[in-house]
């Protein structure tokens, strides 16, 4: 089932997610719904807070990046197959030079900004079967994970841009929270006036 994506301005996007266990109600169904919602919105990641659940769960599917002509073959192939579920994730290390990339977010449609992030991360998490993993990622895979990880920490990519850029997009952000935006996927707007 395709779920509405929570728009910028909703307090749930600012909550730090809580850890869950294998008995979390309807977890398999929730994950399937999140996958369907992400694909429908043409996203490469989706975190539980974006569908109204303040839990430490996010999903990634970087296959849309595999069409990027500028990538080396090895990275293109890796991104084509990088589809994972992260539960109770914890980034234990970020390293390398910071690099800029134009990021967007399904909760903040029609806004893209350059965000600087470190190039390499090590992350611990459990998958949908609650099997533990520790992985080191770099490049675009690391960036997508960092972006989604921020969501379960109550952080948005707009928090990571300069104060000048924040001022420049302030009105656009206000409009998003009021529903004055037209994404081609379902959204739930916190400040939309009900008639």
From TrEMBL:
**Where is the catalytic site?**
148
State its Enzyme Commission number(s).
Answer: 3.5.1.88
List ligand-binding residues for Fe cation. Answer: 105, 147, 151
Q: Which SUPFAM superfamilies match?
A: Peptide deformylase
Q: Which reaction does it catalyse?
A: N-terminal N-formyl-L-methionyl-[peptide] + H2O = N-terminal L-methionyl-[peptide] + formate
Keyword annotations of the record: Hydrolase, Iron, Metal-binding, Protein biosynthesis
Record flagged with keyword Thylakoid: no
Q: What class of enzyme is it?
A: hydrolase
Bound cofactor: record note:
Binds 1 Fe(2+) ion.
Q: Does the keyword Translocase apply?
A: no
Q: What is this protein called?
A: Peptide deformylase
Q: Which gene encodes it?
A: def
